[in-house]
Amino acid sequence: MKENQAVQDIHSKKKKKSRFITLILVILLNLGIVGFIVGRELTANGGVGKNKLQISSMHPWFTVSAIVVFGLALFAEYMKYRRMLLSGAGRLDRRGAFQVATYGKYADNITPLGAGGQPFQIHFLHKRGYPGGVSTSVTMNGFLSQQVAFIIIAILVLIISPYTTEIPESVLALRIMAYIGLAFYSFFPLLIVAFALFPKPITALIMAFLKLGHKMHIVKDYESAHDRVFEGIMEYTDLIKQAIRRPTFLIPTMFWSFVYQMSILSIPFFCIRAFGGEGDWWTIFAITVNIYLAITIIPTPGNSGVAEGSFYLVFSALPSGALFWAMIFWRALVYYSWIVIGLVVVLRTAVKNTYMHKKEVPAGRPLNICLACDAFFPVIDGVIRTMDQYAREMVKMGHRVVVVAPNLKGADDEKLPYEVYRLPQFKVPGIPFESVKPFMSRKVKKHLDSYNFDVIHIHSPMILGKMMQRYARRRKIPVFTTFHSKYYDDTLHLTHSKLLASIMVKYILHFYHRVDSVWACSASTGETLRSYGYNGHIGVMENGVENMPEGNIEEYKKEAIANYNIPTNKKLFLFVGQQIWHKNLKLVLDTTKALCDEDDSYHTIIVGVGYDAEAIKKYAEEIGVSDKVTFVGKIRSRKALFGLYELCDLFFFPSLYDNAPLVVREAALASLPSLLVKGSTAAEIVVDDQNGYLAENNVESMSQRIKEAFASGRMKEVGKKASETIPIPWKNIVEQVIDRYISESKHPE
User: Fold this and answer.
1) d(C-alpha 402, C-alpha 635), whole Å
2) Domain count, the chain
């Protein structure tokens, strides 16, 4: 082992020495060429005096235009990667797009042939949290699109460029070299296209070349070379096929690649004109394309040295003014600017990784925990009840909890065992919700700072959620979030616009991609978020349930019968939830009618309030079941609610909207079996005819399943099994939450 290590150390030292020598040679080459050009500038065409005069009379419009065109090239690269990351990962990552674009150009310009940045970009994206497939496809498609754009431009230039006898011989000689460069530049992309179209003959041709190289001792390990070549070609071919099959990915990528190439290739025109040179845009543009083609095979980082020399050699034969300064300005923009910007990105990322990690959630002491949501009491829904139970159990465990929420009308937080900090709210016109004002004042930030939060757990991705996310990011506080709701369905129901619903999904995806840990209350709920385009890790943190209320449950049943006028001689269904149509309440009423039309012994009890409550009651009247349905409204007493759970025979909850409804768990706690829609996210915890019942999402299937359940005589047995398998105490859930706050805040480095 020691001998092997020694051999590895020797090889490592040789590699470092070789890289150092290469670097010195590149620097000397650059200095030599630039020195030669400086000497010629100072002695030719009137010497330094004339050169100074030309510099002092440089044209500001062309100077500014050159900088603006470089900015356009930078913007095009940024937009290309931004679009690819959004398409490939569903992630609107503006900072990541800018960094990977500039990092790629930086790496290109410090590696041979000016095109070696792809491995660095793949590594960068992987470190930023993108899956390996996304990192590779985005990087390689970015590289290929840029190559293809340049090849197309180069071919057009070589066909129609206006070379005449008036153009100097040096330019004509350059064109011959450009053809060689184009062949070199096009070889690999054309090979991939040919391989995709004609795989068998291209395979045979490649094998013949490899065998020839092996016989000539150029290719030492034939098998290894064969595998590497074909793996690379197959990977590139797959990427091209994927891109072609996705026009929304391919078209923007190619568009921004063309914008980039046209901008970069136009910069010499503005540089030359800025320093007193002459020539129209097309002529200088065409010559620049030829220069880039001619120097493409020069194995220096960013083609440095030879690029400056070629530029000076070609344009010195034209009326080009203070060419030395035009050349310096050109290289400063298209070469050194990328290196400077790239170095800033590299150094900033390194500093951020070293010194700017979010603080870890400490173990072994009580935590300062923030729970935040865009709604809270007096509004009641599953999300708010979940937050309330989190907070209550955390306080019992000795942690300090602060709920941050809008200051809603009628809010009364005095009796809560935890603190609630209310932010100023506003009413959104046309929408039955209130939220916070979209700007966090200095006073609010100062107040939040006083809590010294160890962790912030956000339960909604809307205005308040995004504000708290930004606040946490600036203070390096770990941010957790739980995906609770089907936001696409919510928006579609409110606006009746698929376009607005899609925009909302993109809006919330930006939120979920910028937090430290994403949870869902069930695996199927996580799949809903995946269907929106989220590709990050999703942990599952189930909802819990409170213990049964203390006291005599028979008394609670009697009180429910008396308070809500419940018939005791009927087969009773119970629905508990918001009175909104997308809870599938129409199916509840239609099923009640279908059953009662055959048998008058069924009765439905509906508990809850909501903005569709009056419309739901009106529909019950229209279909003639108002006397078969009891609308209880809001129940504030937990004892009264459990009186109904114990009184009824079946919990009828066919909602397709709810993800992990607490009411199903509460019903199970009271040994009341639930009837749910087969395949819904709410039904994930139910096994049909064992701890609950499942049916298709239609009246016929639901009514048939209800009749079968009552006829089986096993409903109490199924309810008992539900009580044994479904409810998990909130105490157990919150213990897991605290453990994951601590473990998931730790940094892998």
Assistant:
1) 26
2) 3
Same domain, 471 and 529: yes
Spatial distance between the Cα atoms of 222 and 210, rounded to a whole number of angstroms: 7
CB atoms within 10 A of CB 52: 12
List, as one string, the DSSP characters of 585-606.
Answer: HHHHHHHHHHHHHH-TTEEEEE
Check whether residue 338 and residue 408 sit in a common domain.
no
Distance from C-alpha of 718 to C-alpha of 604, rounded to nearest angstrom: 20
Beta bridge partners of 408: none
Q: Are residues 580 and 632 in the same domain?
A: yes
Q: Encode pLDDT of 80-139 as tens digits.
A: 988 888 776 666 678 888 988 888 888 877 776 556 677 778 877 877 767 666 677 788
Enter the tokens of residue 672: 């009341």
Q: Which ranges constitute the DSSP H helices of 475-584?
A: 487-495, 498-512, 523-531, 553-564
Give the pLDDT mean for 252-256.
90
Confidence of residue 701 (pLDDT cuts 50, 70, 90): very high
Does the residue 405 lie in any domain?
A: yes
* Residue 274 · residue 59 · CB < 8 Å: yes
Residue 385, φ and ψ in degrees, nearest 5: -65, -35
Question: 651 by DSSP, 3-state: which?
Answer: strand
- Identify whether 74 is part of a domain: yes
pLDDT in tens, 522-549: 888 888 998 888 877 889 999 999 888 8
**Tens-digit pLDDT profile for residues 586-620:** 999 999 999 999 999 999 999 999 889 999 999 99
| Helix pair 487-495, 498-512: axis angle to 10 deg | 150
481 strand-pairing partners: 458, 518
In terms of domains, do 713 and 656 share one?
yes
d(CA 619, CA 168): 87
Whether 703 and 653 share a structural domain: yes
Tell whether 609 and 588 lie within a shared domain: yes
Q: What are phi and psi of 550, to 5 degrees?
A: -75, 155
Given 517, 540, 563, the domain boundary residue is 540
pLDDT band of 734, cuts 50, 70, 90: very high
Confidence of residue 78 (pLDDT cuts 50, 70, 90): very high
Q: How confident is the model at residue 7 (pLDDT cuts 50, 70, 90)?
A: very low
Cα(210)–Cα(224) distance, integer angstroms: 11
Distance between CA atoms of 733 and 725, rounded to whole angstroms? 15
For the chain, give the mean pLDDT.
82
Name residue, tokens 């013949």: 208
CA angle 685, 688, 692 (to 5 degrees): 65
CA–CA distance from 340 to each of 34, 333, 559 (Å)?
Answer: 20, 10, 77
The tokens for 298 are 């020069």
Residue 479 lies inside a defined structural domain of this protein: yes
Domain boundary pick from 540, 570, 591: 540
Question: What is the DSSP pairing of strand 400-406 with strand 419-423?
Answer: parallel
3-state helix, strand, coil in the chain (%, to 5): 60, 10, 30
Whether residue 410 sits in one domain with residue 350? no
C-alpha distances (whole Å) from 258 to each of 139, 175, 265, 607, 629 are 17, 22, 10, 61, 66
Pick left, alpha or beta for residue 168 (phi over 0 → left; psi -120 to 50 → alpha; otherwise beta): beta
Query: In the predicted model, is pLDDT for residue 491 greater than 60?
Result: yes
CATH code assigned at 611: 3.40.50.2000
Q: Are 722 and 691 in contact (CB under 8 A)?
A: yes
Question: Structure pTM?
Answer: 0.60
Query: Which structure tokens are listed for 346?
Result: 């590299």
∠ CA(227), CA(230), CA(234), 5° rounding?
135
Same domain, 303 and 439: no
Query: How does 661-690 read in b/e, with b if 16+ C-beta sit within 10 Å?
Result: bbbbbbbbbbbbbbbbbeebbbbbbbeebe
Domain that holds residue 428: 368-540
